[in-house]
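Issue: copy button drops trailing tokens. Both records pasted manually instead:
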Amino acid sequence: MFVQGFEGSWFDHPFWRTKFVLAQEKDLLKVRGSSVRAVIIDETKGAPLRTPDPRPGPPVQFRAALRPTGTISAPKSANFATSYTRALKLFGRSRKAVTGMYDDVRLGKAIKAEKLVPLVDEITQSIDSNPRAFISIAQLKSAHEYIYMHSVAVCALMINLARELRFSEAAVRDAGMAGLLHDIGKAVMPTTILDKPGPLEDDEFELIKTHTVRGRELLARSSGVSHHALDVCLRHHEKYDGSGYPDGLAGDRLSLFARMSALCDVYDAVTSERAYKRPWTPTEAVSSMRSWTGHFDPDMTELFLKSVGIYPVGALVKLRSGLTAMVTGENPEDPTRPPMISVPHSLRLDPRDQEIVGMASAEAEKLEAWENQRTALVRRFRS
């Protein structure tokens, strides 16, 4: 039978994937022995599996999944615009809070992580309201504010991935806080190196690599910091094949949170404007990250890329028809064909100007002046 999902936390079941064909009785026994409340199955993708003799333990319910039918419609423009406006305001408050945190560290003050909990909770609420709005806006940060706002973006990506993994509320908060604090070691790195508009010399790179250890030392002296945040701060540059730093840990020696943070950190880094490079589009990032054998946990990579989407909400695409269209949601049936609305040259969001349009395929279309057009769109929301 085809497992569509589990009811309960991601920690409650022994499988990396949440969608797969369950074909062996030993795997069924693992499900029965877990603490999941129910298993959701898709009867259109696999035949029912004959269960073995009953075993002691709590019963597990198997439920048929409801498959979406028909076309995916775009959300109402007012709701879409409102979610972006709220996300923009939250992004501004986040900038102030994180800049203050880095300034405090440079002055020798300890971090009080408990004071950051309300910010993490606000970002979580924004992600829950519109999973793509805040993440898309976070990618608009300029090169000079990257050091600060990268932490905010990774916080949001960690929360989004934690939701995909069905973490408990407490674990989602821990993931967000770990993302927010993961790069704090850069607060004590030389700004001349951090802002250098070109490749680092070998000695400069070796110095920058110490930000993981320095950051963990800073957090260990601070209050309200969980062991997950300490681990992510130290391990977010480790690689699944053991070629990362600081300790070259590989595979299962890396915690779940560390593997999550490696993906979130790299995705935001490559899709952000830096002093020495242009930002990649989400499609470029997805394609490249999939090809980097050994860098990330492969199963986690697929879950992460699903969580961010090939075409994030707010991305502007140029269609073969000549229309410019804005992505307004996602299509679970075919991620390469998201729902969109046409956008006139003035970038007005008046419903009278909107037309729902289709997309042939990801390969047939291209993102046109993605970061420039989306910046103009966000400015429109501000006005």
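Record 2 (pasted manually too):
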Amino acid sequence: MSFLGSSSTGTSTTATSSAVTGQELLNDITINNPPEDSIEDISFSPQQDLLAVASWDKKVRIYEIDPNSGNNMGRAMYEHEAPVFSSRWSIDGTKIISGGADNQVKIFDLATQQAQQIGQHDSAVKSVRYVECGPTNTQVIASGSWDKTLKYWDMRSPQPVSTINLPERVYSMDNSQKLLVVGCADRHISIIDLNNPQQIFKSSQSPLKWQTRCVSCYPQANGFAVGSIEGRCAIQYITENEQKKFGFSFKCHRKSGGNTTGTTNTTGGAGAGLRTTSSSNANESHAYSVNAISFHPIYGTFSTAGSDGTFCFWDKDAKQRLKSFPELPGAISATAFNKTGTIFAYAVSYDWSLGYMGNRQDYPNIIKLHATKDLEIKQKNKR
């Protein structure tokens, strides 16, 4: 059976597609020669099946993947001077941008295999994105930092094109079309309309009670999802009208008694959770950080992945979980769909939720490729 040969368009009930059988991940392909330290970010090229991986080992690796067999090999690699927190592709797929704890923004040319620094912050660069600004769709690089700034860079100048002061340190950032959303410390959310990129269009606070871990924009660019360390996800919209009609939040990566949204263990395999109640063991509840949210490029459904070592597929419009998957032997630190949504990549790696002491030598550090099925990821009312 080919790697993608198992794709299915058959129908099934919600209960059948959502149930965990334990067999769903047996055919997932492992990426060869993974990073030597924790995996912080992964992203697919928008043009071909190339995967960029940012790691705490100070390197960005690019892997080439055969979508038919899942066979993969290293294509290129370049280095920062400290752990790399974010890597993303240019729109034409010819370059990779990255930022990390060395405060630098770098760009790597896939054709020449050369990397160069194009930007500098006063503190760690937590997230980078390639964006198109204004009516002429001018392409620039956006970088968000712990120095509480968002900067735009043009490769032709060592100075930022523009700088926006943010309310707090940047923890996560994402864009879609002309929407750029920045998740900051203290639950601040800054929304930027890239038609007017030099100012914040709207400021708000996450509706979730605890620290923001990730934000991810909808493909339609009319809203975004927020994940927090409390094991919850919020579905948000830009306009007040849509927010009132369609906005909501839900629990995802949690364990209560013997049941969980994605089975977890609490003794180190996938990282310990935030204990929320403790009147008795049967009623004890654990919440696990939502580390990554990725939207399917075709269907607009999405995945959540967490410190509990599980990931799930969801339909926000139907407010429905489409599919749960078995627990993995470590936290899931990053996820990504390829350009067609037929491959879902996930990194099983230490997510630093337990601090330095939790980073054991035997902790898993792998990237897996899952061939998605319509049965798992497509909206039920669009079969």
